[in-house]
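A protein record pairs a chain with a discrete description of its three-dimensional fold. The following entry can be read in just this way:
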Amino acid sequence: MPSLADVRDEYEFLEADDRYRLLIDLGRELEAMPAALKSDATLVRGCSASVWVYPTARDDETLHFLADSNAAITKGIIALVLLAVQDRPAGEILATDIPGALAPFDLSKQLSSNRTQGIPNMIALIRETAARYA
């Protein structure tokens, strides 16, 4: 996966349709999430599409998230969120301003409110997970 800064640099120069394609392509690059992990326990509430997030702690004390969605554009949004936190220590995740990191993408103006309404819930789940491990 590219860095969030690299994606932001590319995103800024694209027209709306190309931005959608970029998000969809990012979603395709997400690590596959096994079907067995897509359960009610990993379902993110409040999303218009189904979104699953499964956190794991690694031996190096970083958190790694598997995530998936049944909607391509939503999966791309998940990929953006994960670029801000993936494979980082819990304390660093807690210190990260995830909404601030996503602000340059101006998703609320690029996508419908149905597509973006679950972002705060995804972020809250990631923060709660990091707090448990910190």
